[in-house]
Design goal:
Layout (H helix, E strand, L loop, with lengths): L6 E6 L6 H10 L4 E5 H5 L14 H24 L3 E5 L5 H10 L4 E7 L3 H10 L6 H4 L2 H8 L5 E3 L6 H10 L15
Parallel strand pairs: 1-3, 1-4, 2-3, 4-5
Length: 186
């Protein structure tokens, strides 16, 4: 009998898709849960920050990769201490997904792709006081849908409540997440 791998859930979707709310709620549904929000880690850069889409592109990409690396390091440490882990960030291509996989060796990484219609995401984004950024990134909806069309647990969360979405995630069999982490120990 093989030992069960520790599990981490990675949430992606465009801004306003509900990544942070859903990931945080899923983490709270466990007796011991940690939610690692990519935007909060990215905001730790207070000098020399180059945000996604800004110039120079190589520096923006480097800072995104640094954020991913830090998310993975925090996730590994929390998993070692027996916490359930959820991570959220706008992961728009397979290269970034592969970086998470490489950063979480021996972890059962489960991808959750939240895909409300763009109008719903834009409306949610307008209603949050801390940041309004979805209009700038709504074009990523098509890219995410194309990049991950055959991987991850896809949830159109425009209508169901967050608790219903979390219940669906918790009830989904491992195979529903359709993401084979090549770095995971078998």
């Amino acid at each position: 009998m093989s030992a069960r791998l520790p599990t981490a859930w990675l949430f992606t979707g465009i801004p306003g898709a509900g990544k942070t709310t859903t990931a945080r709620t899923l983490a709270r549904s466990f007796p011991r849960g940690v939610h690692i929000e990519g935007d909060r880690l990215f905001d730790l850069v207070v000098s020399g920050r180059v945000a996604p889409g800004e110039l120079p592109v190589l520096e923006a990409d480097r800072q995104i990769e640094l954020c991913i690396d830090h998310q993975c390091a925090l996730a590994r440490r929390a998993l070692e201490d027996g916490f359930a882990v959820t991570i959220d960030f706008v992961v728009a291509d397979r290269g970034r997904l592969a970086r998470y996989a490489a950063g979480l060796p021996g972890i059962d990484l489960r991808l959750v792709v939240l895909v409300p219609d763009p109008e719903t995401a834009l409306a949610r984004d307008r209603d949050r006081p801390e940041k309004t950024v979805a209009a700038r990134w709504v074009h990523l909806d098509a890219q995410i849908r194309k990049e991950f069309e055959d991987v991850g647990l896809w949830i159109d969360n425009a209508e169901p409540s967050v608790s219903d979405v979390v219940a669906r995630i918790r009830a989904a069999p491992k195979e529903a997440f359709r993401f084979d982490n090549p770095q995971a120990a078998r």
